[in-house]
Amino acid sequence: MNASHRLSVTWKDVPTRTITAGGVDFAYRELGTDNPGTPVVFLIHLAAVLDNWDPRVVDGFAAKHRVITFDNRGVGASSGSPATSMEEMAKDAITFIKAMGLAQVDLFGFSMGGMIAQEIVLMEPRLVRKLIITGTGPAGGEGISKVARVTYFDMVRGWLSFQDPKQFLFFTRTPTGIRAGKEFLQRLKERSGNRDKAITVAALQAQLKALRRWGAKKPADLSSVHQPVLVANGDSDRMVPTKNTHDLARRLPNSELIIYPDSGHGAVFQFHADFVPKALAFLSR
């Protein structure tokens, strides 16, 4: 793909491709510049497929970097049986990254993706140059084992009120948060063609099992992670309580922390106009 073609493609119309590695057909999308710098691999959240990435965030990163996103094993259009631990998901991500021919990457992990990113950097430190982890916490973090309970509760709230559960899970119930949630959900609909397959119930249950395991785990020693890490969240995260984000930043020796006001789990989507330039500046330093 030449540079001019790459630059003309946006998240709304970038094709979905497949690469086979480790017996899995990974569905992925790739866009951005032919900048010789380090590619950024996006790691997705609980219950999500490719279409759950905010176009403003993907296109914002892709203006300066090669961006690669993929469906986890057994999720969306990727084949195989879904993983039931963060460690398995991290191994799958490493398999995918190496199959793409990438010697070193930057990682952007949101929520569950931030947990996978932590496992990747512990398993293969040389593979990772920098990390951006948002709406997440460390293994054994307070309240993480209860994510399933919060998720099911807000799924029911969504069904009863004919709303997407992400309106409750990702955003505050203040006027600002409600408006931000509606805007975010509209952006997710901008891609009208060649959309991804929805996650199955079995894959969601496997991910919830992985989250319970992660929450019950002995806290990881992150003192060996010397890569620069940008940590971000909202001040009122219901899914992964915000105190975990502060804890994560403290545990990482080379971290920067951003906490957005009047926002929850999806703060980096609510504040995309502020977050993307900060993330790009962090990656360019």
UniProtKB/TrEMBL annotation:
<feature type="domain" description="AB hydrolase-1">
    <location>
        <begin position="40"/>
        <end position="269"/>
    </location>
</feature>
<dbReference type="Pfam" id="PF00561">
    <property type="entry name" value="Abhydrolase_1"/>
</dbReference>
<dbReference type="InterPro" id="IPR000073">
    <property type="entry name" value="AB_hydrolase_1"/>
</dbReference>
<dbReference type="InterPro" id="IPR050471">
    <property type="entry name" value="AB_hydrolase"/>
</dbReference>
<protein>
    <submittedName>
        <fullName>Pimeloyl-ACP methyl ester carboxylesterase</fullName>
    </submittedName>
</protein>
<dbReference type="InterPro" id="IPR029058">
    <property type="entry name" value="AB_hydrolase_fold"/>
</dbReference>
